[in-house]
Design a protein that fits this description.
The complex is a heterodimer of chains A (114) and B (113). Chain A has 114 residues and is an all-beta fold. Chain A is 0% helix and 54% strand. In chain A, strands 2, 5, 6, 10, 11 and 12 form a six-stranded mixed sheet that branches. In chain A, strands 3-9-8-7 form a four-stranded antiparallel sheet, with no helix packed on it. A two-stranded antiparallel sheet of chain A has the order 1-4. Chain A is globular. By secondary structure, chain B is mainly β. Helix content of chain B is 0%, strand content 50%. Chain B contains no helices and eleven strands. In chain B, strands 2, 4, 5, 6, 9, 10 and 11 form a seven-stranded mixed sheet that branches. In chain B, strands 1-3-8-7 form a four-stranded antiparallel sheet, with no helix packed on it. In chain B, strand 7 and strand 8 form a beta hairpin. The chains are: A mainly beta (114), B mainly beta (113). The interface between A and B is medium-sized, with 26 and 24 residues.
Chain lengths: 114, 113
């Protein structure tokens, strides 16, 4: 079974600074997707960024980028120029390309301080 | 286009009572899921469905039942609620497994006294 681990339950960062959230996963599969989801206080789950395992290039979405290290099974999220609206719980998730399910990590609560 | 809608949003039950959570999606998605979210445990999969008339167990299926009689609806039932089922429940759907992205409902907070 796949597992996803987020070792940082809580993190904080000053507004305009950069922060990196960590995620590691365990799988024997070669083809899969990795995701970061954001859950603000409104509770709505929002997709932040997605990475296909077969792509070597790291995904980027505006201020959000990932560092995907396939051999190390690591998938960290970097948030640049942090904004107050980035305050949220962030979940890392893994899904096999051939599968039907996503496995989520425990989450990291990020607080952006003014 | 409403996306994924869950009802009810909030519910308080007494131990032993039963209830059903309804999830409806208008995106013609094949795959639908029920997760529960508890502090420090992330989202855990309860049951899921890969198409109309199908259901399968996830990580934590005990105490729950599901049905997918229509493609757009996925029902989660608690036959005899227990305090351990106090949680926030999320429904999600996606078109096909290859694309991967899940679309979530807004969550339903259930308290069992």
């Amino acid at each position: 079974a796949q597992t996803v681990t987020q070792s940082q339950p809580e993190m904080s960062v000053q507004e305009a600074e950069t922060v990196t959230l960590s995620c590691t996963y365990d799988t024997s599969e070669n083809n899969y997707y990795l995701f970061w989801y954001k859950q603000p206080p409104s509770r709505q789950m929002i997709l932040v960024i997605r990475q296909e395992a077969y792509k070597q290039q790291n995904a980027t979405e505006n201020r959000f980028s990932v560092n995907f290290q396939k051999a190390a099974k690591s998938f960290s999220l970097k948030i640049s120029d942090s904004q107050l609206g980035d305050t949220a719980m962030y979940f890392c998730a893994f899904g096999e390309t051939s599968g039907s399910r996503l496995t989520f990590g425990e989450g990291t609560q990020l607080t952006v301080n003014p | 286009n409403a996306g994924v809608t869950q009802t009810p949003k909030f519910r308080v039950l007494k131990t032993g009572q039963s209830m059903t959570l309804l999830c409806a999606q208008d995106m013609n998605h094949e795959y639908m899921y029920w997760y529960r979210q508890d502090p420090g445990m992330g989202l855990r999969l309860i049951h899921y469905s890969v198409g109309e008339g199908t259901t399968a167990k996830g990580e934590v299926p005990d105490g729950y039942n599901v049905s997918r009689l229509k493609k757009q609806n996925f029902l989660l039932g608690l036959e005899s609620a227990a305090p351990s089922q106090t949680s926030v429940y999320f429904c999600a759907s996606r078109l096909i497994r290859v694309t991967g992205e899940l679309f979530f409902g807004e969550g339903s907070r259930l308290t069992v006294l």
